Amino acid sequence: MDLGLTGRTAFVAASSQGLGYACARSLAREGAAVTLNGREADRLAAAAGTLRSELPDAEVSWVAADLTTPEGRAAIVAQVPDVDLLVTNNAGPRPGSLDEWDADALVGALQANAIPAVELMRAWIPGMRARGFGRVVNITSAMVKSPAADMGLSTSARAALTAISKSISLDVAADGVTVNNLLPERIDTPRQEFMAQRLMATHGIDRTEAFRRIASTIPVGRLGAPEEFGDACAFLCSAQAGYISGQNLQLDGGAYRGLV
Question: Which domains does the chain carry?
């Protein structure tokens, strides 16, 4: 299937590794000109080089900037003034508990996992509307629908982004711009390595057992592949997905127990 992305311009936040990189790879494979982003220039250059070697025809650039700061976002928009496909992403807060979730922690979570996405939408959606085409995909978390006790900080910030994104989607849909969210759980990325190490330290188990326990929580019995996640992102960015907006697509191997 031709997803209609050839010649489109894409920006993928926090994309030197993990879920962001997977989305960037799928978009580049489908013909979009992709700009990677992260804080470390060396890692971005390496990631861009890997993409170019795997996909010789891909157009890949990168911008090293901290998207949690106004200065970083300004640098990003200056380098990439027009975007057709925006994928927002950032690492989530560490697990914790109520005694750690003071005002500073709450504000910090919003500054990392909600405000940058909204500010980038504010920067680029007007151009999308003027051109009659745009796709926004926010990488949030399955915790938005199924919060874990120790993930309240991440859940609260991502739920805030989910709410405002729904409002934005209603305003821009008639101009050919869609806004959707991808909700991952247990995708095989460095984040899961972190969670495995945490299990190992808490329960005194080895890495194999930690990953076995993680996979046992997923009905399909395995972690998700980054490529599966990236391809879902590419479809939501596609020409064919113009009638899908304001939605939360879970990539969780069937783990969600609810109906809606």
Answer: 9-185+225-251 (3.40.50.720), 188-223 (no CATH)
Q: Kindly report the pTM of this predicted structure.
A: 0.95
Tens of pLDDT along 167-199?
999 999 999 999 999 999 999 998 888 889 989
First to last CA, the chain: 29
CA-based nearest residue to 177, from 87, 244, 256: 244
Six token digits for residue 26: 């799928």
Mean pLDDT of 125-153: 96
Give the amino acid at 222: R
Residue 150 identity: D
Taking only the tens place, the pLDDT of each residue in 122-132 is 999 999 999 99
- CA 228 to CA 169: how far, in whole Å? 25
- Mean pLDDT over 27-43 rounds to 98
